[in-house]
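Hi there,

I know you've been waiting on this one. I reran it after we fixed the sequence typo, so this is the corrected version. Both the input and the resulting structure follow.
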Amino acid sequence: MKHLKFAILSLALLTILMNSAVIPVISQLNAAFPDTSSEMIKLTLSIPALTNIIFSLIVAKLSYRIPRKNILIFALTLYTLSGIGCSLAPTFGWLLAGRALLGMGAGMISPLVTDLIAYFYEGDERTQMIGYSNASSNLSGIFIPLLAGWLAEFNWHYAFWVYGIGFFVLIVTALFIPITPLTTNTSQKNEYFSQPRTVWLVILMNFLVMLVFYTLPTNLSMFIKEEAIGTTSTAGFLVSISTLVSTLIGLVFARLYNRFSRQLLMIGMVFTAIGFSALAFPPSLTGLILSEILVGIGLGVLFPFFSLTITQFTSGQQTTTALSMYSSSFSLGIFMSPIFFNLFGNLTGRESIQTEFVFAAILFSFLCILIRFFPKNKYRE
């Protein structure tokens, strides 16, 4: 079982790396494709999220006919070859196609990570594994972007080599993930719409969290520059702080859950709301560090809590479908975030990035109220 845990945590390494190689090279892509507008260049960030949404939903249907292990092997092959293939892109169209294929692979991998945990583990061990998988994702989110940025200093093509990690995960998956039996859909109901109310609440909250949270990493570098707080490397340092804190929270999530149980949801929302509220005060590096720490604690609690709750309120194939919907809500929030805040800016006439941060604090405070309607009893353990 140790090898199985290692394989599942290796899969978790890939779940948040879709944009890790692109963010450090956006400026270089503008120079490499001078005939392509900056708006089109930004599609390299958003197109994987769009295909991720679609294939996160499709994977639930596929799992009726194809064993999870076989789906993962196909998805990992697609993920790795398309990721590295972007380094060979002679045209922008090639690059964009590679990014779309990468999103497809990631969309099939992400929901199956938690699905495997729900299938093989129960009780405290399941809670611990979900916390560890979240920590594993965040750990790769710290080091892989740094590696991609270092490789990009030689040539922007080299940054995409970081997706070679997929070959390692593919081998581990082939060796240590067992083939699970197929399940059949005996219900006449559409499994996407017959989920428990709690699952829909989790999906809604996760979407809103990502929709509003993503304004922070998107605008952090610009905010630091406008307020003369630091340099572009300061932004990377601050994001690393937040990710590191989330990683540490993931490692102790099982203990926190045993101590606070359902109160963790409120705790996570409160920490995140306070973190964004700290950005409403006069800008300073100390304030930004404090904000990133608080937000890191909040998200480090919320994401494993959401995943765990879905596995507790569903069973069997219903869990696979629910986790697919949950994964899609994650990517949909990222995809819609810049669109939403662009409309928000047009409607409010805001002139400061801080306005978005204040709005985020207000929404997280609203979510604290929404939590009152969250069921207090577990349906299944």
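Quick highlight: The first helix runs from residue 2 to 12.

Best,
R. S.
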